[in-house]
Amino acid sequence: MKKIEAKKKNKKHIRCVVCGRDFGSDYDDNIKAYPIYHTIKPKKLNEPCEDRFYKALLRIYLYLHEMQNSVPISRLVNDLEWLGLVLMKKDMLKWCLDRGYLYVDNLMRIEIPSEIENTCGEIFDNSNLNDPEVIERAVEMIKAALKCLTDSLKPVSPDRIPIKQFQELELGESKLYDNIDTSDVQLRSEKDGMVTARRTGANRVEVRIKSGESTRERQRLETEAENER
């Protein structure tokens, strides 16, 4: 009974970044953190959240490796082909920065930590995203490498995490745009004008914000101007 109570106390209430469901996360000594993904597959899902998480992380690494340069967070969120693997992309990126799985350079852009690049560079070179078997092997090797590198990876300090860039992505990361067809969605705000979001790909969202007065207010001013004439 005492062991059960102690185990409950070690749990942390977390929302899974993959499926969006709340769960009790157990501290993992291998990664020295509370996983932000289900380590046990939810019954309603065909694929374990943990596998989907690391497949998404592999895609991030391959994207950065191919670019051979650091990139802004917006590029990762909007240009990377996520394939619907992760629901809460920003939360995943923040967690990876906090774990040292990703790094921020002097330009506040995201890059692969040198420890991971040096250890997994060959894996990145030989990974074929179109071959499921290759991806499965690459994911297992990445997971093993990250566990081995846990003590040498350096978490990005809170003052180095580009919070402003994350905030600018707030609208584009709305779960509304991840789950439904937003080819013709318009959100209106009396204060901020009109916001238009359009789906340009499976997981790419293009957001355009037009500042100005609302249509109703503009029509009122035009009417008053006509009356004065």
If you had to describe this structure to a student in words, what would you say it looks like?
By secondary structure, the protein is an alpha+beta fold. It folds into 2 domains: 43-168; 175-228, no CATH class. The chain contains 9 helices and 7 strands. The protein has helices spanning 2-9, 49-67, 73-79, 89-99, 114-125, 132-148, 163-168, 175-179, 215-228, and strands at 11-15, 22-26, 103-104, 110-111, 185-189, 193-199, 205-210. Strands 5-6-7 form a 3-stranded antiparallel beta sheet, with no helix packed on it. Strand 6 (193-199) and strand 7 (205-210) form a beta hairpin. The radius of gyration is 22 Å and the shape is globular. It starts with a helix and ends with a helix. The model is unreliable at 1-8 and 171-215 (pLDDT under 50).
Brief summary of the model shown:
The chain has 229 residues and is α+β, with helices and mostly antiparallel strands.
Structural class determined from secondary elements: alpha+beta
- Radius of gyration computed on alpha carbons: 22 Å
Q: What is the count of β-strands? A: 7
Q: Compute the average pLDDT.
A: 75
| Spatial strand arrangement across the major sheet | 5-6-7
Oligomer: single chain
Determine the fraction of residues in helical runs and give it as a percent range.
Answer: 40-55%
| Strand content range | 5-15%
Outline: globular
| Low-confidence region ranges | 1-8, 171-215
Please, how many domains? 2
Please summarize the sheet with the most strands.
Answer: 3 strands, antiparallel
Distance between the termini: 84 Å
Element string (H = helix, E = strand): HEEHHHEEHHHHEEEH
Count of DSSP-assigned helices? 9
